[in-house]
Model the fold of this input.
Amino acid sequence: LSTKKVEPEKLSTKKVEAEKLSTKKVEPEKLSTKKVEAEKLSTKKVEPEKLSTKKVEAEKLSTKKVEPEKLSTKKVEAEKLSTKKVEPEKLSTKKVEAEKLSTKKVEPEKLSTKKVEAEKLSTKKVEPEKISTKKVEEEEEKPSVKKDRKEK
Done:
């Protein structure tokens, strides 16, 4: 490995390529035009007429005033709302209706009939014959199921 040598011609050509890369320069025209473009951007100014009109518009907005008649009518409307009163007759009738609701009573006859109905429900009994017949029917069904299984 240590005795391996590079040919001198190849080394010299590599040096020349390196020099070519390092000596590559930017064209002066391109640089100057870029500077001009930058200047154009920085020197761009707003037209004075446009600025002045914007100021006038701002003044128009700030100097906009409410007409005094409109303000006074709004005050009158607010007074109307605040001075609005409930008629005393309407209040009294509402009280009477509340009393009617609270004094409403259930008639004693209706209560007693309800109790009788409850007693009827609680005293209702199942007939003993029906219970016994149900048991017999269930017992009859069971052997038939066993017969079906034996046939299969």
Remarks:
- The chain is about 80% helix and 0% strand.
- The mean pLDDT is 60.
